[in-house]
Amino acid sequence: MTDxxxxxxxxxxxxxxGRQFVDIHQVNVYNVCYSFLQNKHDAEDxxxxxxxxxxxxxxxxxxxxxxxxxxxxxxxxxSLNHLRNNRKRRFWVDIDSLFGLSAQDDKSLKGSxxxxxxFIEQQEQSQIISKAIQSLPENQRVAFTLNxxxxxxxxEVAEVMQTSLSAVESLIYRARAGLQKKLRSYYSK
Amino acid sequence: MECREAEKSMVDFLIQRQAGEMSQDLLKHLNxxxxxxxxxxxxxxxxxxxxxxxxxxxxxxxxxRLSLRMKNHSETIKKQEHxxxxxxxxxxxPVVFAAVASIVLGIWIGGRLISTVKTNVEPExxxxxxxxxxxxxxxxxxxxxNDESTLVLEDYFTDISETENHDSK
Lengths: 189, 169
Known about the structure:
Chain A is an all-alpha fold.
């Protein structure tokens, strides 16, 4: 069954189609949200909101773009809205996770023989990269995340961001330059 | 290759995530420069940690949690609709109250004004029925007197004319 057929059945309220649809696209949607939010609970929350919105508006999808593009677009917009709305809250969450006080990224603790010092160092490194990416302007951050972290092609990124291919190339070039500068300045301290 | 150039290349390499395509110059520099090698290791680890929360396979419980949330969401929306209606009524009630009070006040003031105007006009023709009838009687009496006066005058003029006629004969 193609994506459009699945969506059509979803619009008619078929629960089997709904389950199938969610299972197929769950990983991609979750990973996009996680790339922006860097928090498992928030990523799960926003991914659920994305699917709720897709299921509610499934009848309105005209098929003029790929279904995955539509999903990515909704996921990106919801993630960015969540970041904007929770900027202050996220500041304190980042501080807590830097000192290992947050339970959010405890995956590395499960079953791996890491010491507290190693864990803290890993968290620090992760925070450095996250902060460097978060400090990029929004458009650059979106283009960089979709291309470098989600492995979307330039053309796919252009479709998701509803912009031209040359604009995406420019955004990614500038994002890379910005990241290089930030990481170099951090490690040269 | 100098450290500055190596830093730029290694960050670029890590961002690109092309593991098998590190340049020979960079590889050689990393093997010889301890600080750049350390930076490469730390940055590489940072990127790995950045991506560590990503999923590689679907969570079988995700759909169940999603269905539960959609069900709760529908119930929450229904409750919110009731709350919104109540809030709307609360917000509008001062306006409605003011409008009703204005109408009642307007009717009361209008009634008072009309009754005041009637009261001011009526005293010119007598305030009570008894006074009115008394004045009518007095007027009628006056008319009657006038009638009598007219008769007297008629009789007088008749007498005069008879007297003149008699005299002329």
